[in-house]
Amino acid sequence: MHRKILDLAVPNIVTNITVPLLGLVDLAMMGHLNNPIYIGAIALGGAIFSVIYMGFGFLRMGTSGFTAQAFGAKDTKEIQYILVRSTFVAFALALLLLILQYPIQWLAFLLLDGSTEVKELAKEYFYIRILAAPATLGLYALYGWYLGLQNAKIPMVIAISINLINIGMNFVFIKVFGMKSDGVAWASVLAQYSGLILAALFLFSRYKNYVRIISFNKALQWQALKRFFIVNSDIFIRTLLLILTLTFFTSQSAKISDEILAINTLLFQFFFIFSYFLDGFAFAGEALVGKFKGAADNLQLKLGIQKLFQWNWGMSIIAVFLFYLFTQPILNLLTSDAKIIQTALEYRYWVILLPLTSGAAFIWDGIYIGVTASKAMRNTMIVSSLLIFLPAYYLSLPYMGNHSLWFALNVFMLSRSLLMWIMAPSAVFK
Prior knowledge:
By secondary structure, the protein is mainly alpha-helical. The protein has two domains: 1-220, no CATH class; 233-430, no CATH class. 87% of the residues lie in helices and 0% in strands. It contains 17 helices and no strands. The longest helix has 37 residues, at 258-294. The protein starts with a helix and ends with a helix. The mean pLDDT is 88.
């Protein structure tokens, strides 16, 4: 079981790590130009797409859960139908994004702040990069489908290829053709479509049996689509509340002061680093738990969950020690401002605590997605974000200042873990 978990988790961890590395390359390319407005342009434009695509992450999650269960049940036809449904929904949503790009842009820049020049460049970046929506959402569906088939290596190869192409195109457009932030956007578009083509090549070469003689009428039957939408709408609400909670954390940091915003942003990178690793095991949980659920193998289901939590606690304890030992050295790498570093160290223990309070929530997310217990997943997020996180912050704020944000974040993550553990007998093992 440990081998099965690692075979899925390690490729997913590698895939996750490529995401921030690409962002660093984009920033570095813009940072070496002679004007900081280009960094601002891709920061604003990138923020819009982060929210949009994080919101549509349900396409990957819902698809992996459904596919894993069909794979465990050895239902070849249903695996075919899920592929059709998920890609159909992905391209339909992408078309909707393209149609609504003007009102989306208007609303986004109404909410985002920046100079006139930065906003104009960010709008140019937005209108170019939105063209990649069909490829990006199509890849979400295919990633989830491959993971449901217990194959994390193909998504890893695709993700690495996309990022290498993206970096290469960045150099071509910026260094050769003299483009600026628009070059970064075009590089992203070309890389995403290259990834979609590669994903299709894997599909028709490695899984050609699943794309032969597909009955689109059966695949797109209303009842099947209705269940697909219900599960995915629950995951969407859960994801939206998570985005709003993390956005609230940032916005409240900014309200305190620019210095606190910078400090909290730097310290939050520790949480992101931890999440890249734990998400790898959560994705493994989606695939394995879904397969065992589809096969109605409760013994393997329980064993798989037990081993997943062993990895969770092992990784969490290691993270605690690493964060304790290397908080200041990592902060030194991120900033040279001695005052920022010194003040940030006052909050270090909240960051050191986070792996213990948040790790189980990541694993439970993967388990709940694998068994498509989306309603329970949604409900726990509603309680944790609205009834626990917000009261914890506002009740502690008069006494704790910025500490209240970190306290509320830890309580929020811990409550998600506990609530999903309490609901597991009915949601996971029923």
